[in-house]
Amino acid sequence: LLELMENGSGCLNGSGAADSAEKAQQQQQCPAVQLSERNCEAVRVIGQYLRELGLARSAEALVLEAGCPLESGAAAQFRSSVLLGDWDGAEASLASLRRALWRESSWSEIAFRLAEQRYLELLESGAHIAALCVLRGKLTPLQFSPDRLHRLSGLIMCSGPEELRQLSGWSGAAGGTRQALLDSVEQFFPPSVMLPPKRLSVLLDQAVRAQVSRCRHHNTSLSPDQLTLLADHSCQAAASVPSVCSQVLDAHQDEVHVCQFSPNGRFLATGGRDCVAIVWLVEAAANPPGAPRVRHHLTLRIGEERGGVAWLAWSPDSRLLLACAAEEATEVIVWEAETGDCIKKLKHRDEDSLTTAAWLPDSNHFVVGGNRGHFYLCSVDVGFEKAWDFIRVVALATRREDDGGTAVLAADTFARIRRYRFDTMQDETLFREDGPVMSMSISQDETLLAVCVASAGVHLWDLRLRVCRRRLHGLTHGAYLLHASIGGPNQDFVASGSHDARVCVWHRGCQAGDGAQQHLLPDKLSGHGGLVSCVSWNPRHHGMLASASDDCTVRIWLPASLAAAALAASADGTGPGGAGFSSNGCCSSTVSKHQPPPLL
Amino acid sequence: KSPEFNASYSMGRLHIEHMGGERVFSCANCDCPLTNRQQLISTRFTGATGRAFLFNRVVNLDTSELQDRVMLTGRHMVRDVSCRKCKTKLGWVYEFATEESQQYKEGKIILERALINESEGFPDPVKD
């Protein structure tokens, strides 16, 4: 740069004294490389960025060497005039730029802003007469925005620069307002004349945002402008997504069909064909903090002739556990989870089939139903309360509504998801699925519904907008019931069982590179020896996932970072089984009772 | 009353569909719902156990491999169907009919009358 200065080629874009013609001549002599149009654009954008950072000399050197002027000559003239306060010169440059405007109608606005800046600066410096001349001679003839004109003429009464700045909200000639004026004018001209303000910053921001949208396990609270530019952004799966099996629970004697964490995250309930429901305690190890482990608490029997436990539901206060049977499901049982006391055995009629249930928010009322057409509202205090006739219920969930009441969401055998109000006896179809519904699960904040559709995957519905937000594919279909669960701190993760003995985990927030929603593939966790029917996220320890399988075990999955700590702390027999992502589960206690029959 | 089924074949809980209808047909052995009267096309068929019905659509069935069978009405390609829950053989499904006059049967299912029960259901919901 010093060399250039000595040569006397004062091609400083910012110096208003430089002659345009001389500058152009210098630039024609300087370029060392021939640049394509795209590269020239890149140089212009980089030059603007450097100039905005305050590195004006670097910007000049860049322009000189590349031979790409940042903007047209007249625009450069205009810019330097404004920055120096040469208003007449600015007006002259502006006149020559007039042809280049996007829209002719914006001319008066630009001229007004220019004159307004001049007027305010004159007022600030105390030249009231000159200011008045500008007001009469420049601002008024434009006939642009009488309101602003009126306000500006009012400012002439200000006693001093302080008051002027305060009243007008204008921060003064030294307060960066000249640059602000340039920024606001830039939008009226095409980029070939004047670059849009902060162009490189905008491009970099767009790139980072695109990376964030592709991040498969995105769960950071950092905003895009805090992320590094040096490498493509991608959240570490190890910290948030469960990938390692930290515990294998083998207390069940037969296939396990259901697993549910309680809403407070302290209990896990599991049940299956051996007709028992087991309650486990979740303990977060103290040292190191945050590595949760599960320990056996109670075994509760539902009776041998029942065909096994079909469904388990926790009351919202996490105090009570309700169990439905699979065959001969005439009775539902409610226990108190802490003590194991049987609080209620509810039976209404001998021909009932009640295979699914959901609690209402008061932890006293619950709804039960089955596909033979029984759909009842019951309570722990009173027992059977109301029936809704002729609905063959497949799955149930409840949701609080705006008026304080609770809506019961029921999927039926006609693949409709409907909303029932037992207090007002109103019902309504929310949406209809295009295939038979196997099960349904609502997110903890009650905004999303995960519907497992036979041979179609998991469909995520938004309950406020009543649209299907995502269709999640990748799980293996078959003849048996699968359950899904929504979890994660922002309801970002969906997990489900699968017929290929693996647990599927999706991060629903990310989009494939081209924004297509359909091709969201899950992470698959291996380790089980049989069909995985049910999964459940722990609502409090967000990375903790439980899965129930036909291999008679329940597995606990943790993110890799937590799991390492949990493995180190394990002392009892329920030691860790196999690994997660990459197959191999050499689990000592896995029992695979019989070979699965060929699934047709 | 308790259903008899072969426990060694059950893995997981089977997904059992239900077609609804005011008159429901189900498996005589295990009471698994199969179809309804609206799906009935004809009662004038004969199976191994005697009378058989032709239905348009039936759920909860497992199908066998394709078989070449010559029947009174001509040569057909059929698959045997059995109850998904208890594996009892219930009839067959026509996949291909060689004679043009028999092609109306393709895709339809024969269930033998002796192997199914008919029972009361309730009216289907109005289409909304």
From TrEMBL, chain A:
One GO CC term on file: GID complex
Domain CTLH: start-end pairs: 71-130
Top-level taxon of the source organism: Eukaryota
InterPro entries: CTLH_C (IPR006595), LisH (IPR006594), WD40/YVTN_repeat-like_dom_sf (IPR015943), WD40_repeat_dom_sf (IPR036322), WD40_rpt (IPR001680), WD_repeat-ST_regulator (IPR051350)
Keywords: Repeat, WD repeat
GO biological process, one term: proteasome-mediated ubiquitin-dependent protein catabolic process
Ranges for the WD repeats: 249-280, 525-557
Protein name from the UniProt record: WD_REPEATS_REGION domain-containing protein
Organism listed in the record: Macrostomum lignano
UniProtKB/TrEMBL annotation, chain B:
Similarity comment: family membership: Belongs to the yippee family.
Organism: Macrostomum lignano
Molecular-function GO term, any one: metal ion binding
The name this protein goes by in its record: Protein yippee-like
Keywords attached to this entry: Metal-binding, Zinc
Start and end residues of each Yippee domain: 23-120
Tagged with keyword Ubl conjugation: no
The organism's taxonomic lineage, starting at the top: Eukaryota, Metazoa, Spiralia, Lophotrochozoa, Platyhelminthes
Zinc as UniProt keyword: yes
Matches recorded under PROSITE patterns: YIPPEE
